[in-house]
Specification:
Layout lengths: L1 H5 L13 E3 L9 E3 L5 E6 L3 E9 L1 H12 L3 E3 L6 E9 L20 H8 L4
Parallel strand pairs: 1-5
Antiparallel strand pairs: 2-6, 3-4, 4-6
Amino acid sequence: MLEERFQLKVRQEEKQLPLYSLTVDKSGLKATAVKEAKGKMQVNRNNAAASIKGDGITIDRLCRTLGNMLDRPVVDETGLDGFYDVELKYSADTSAAGKDSAPAEEVTGPSMFTALREQAACD
């Protein structure tokens, strides 16, 4: 009906979009494996500092949270199953994600990417 009335034509095409890939660093995972799925996720952010704390979460859930914060999909390539306690503390400067960033004098701590590598051993 739309095609007849409005001459609307639909076509499919593949488009490559930028994304991030989460992998385990060669130094090994620093997130703590836990047996129980609590599924609690807390994200805090102020002008200069930010943190993510996950209690009994899957790595997939961490990827979705990171993807929402970075405005870009984060694909889980860790190969890890199960549940983990993860805590990341990083600078609230998100200029790499194209968002407003804190003034340079207020930025403290590592970037989100460095915090992932150093605090969770993920790249």
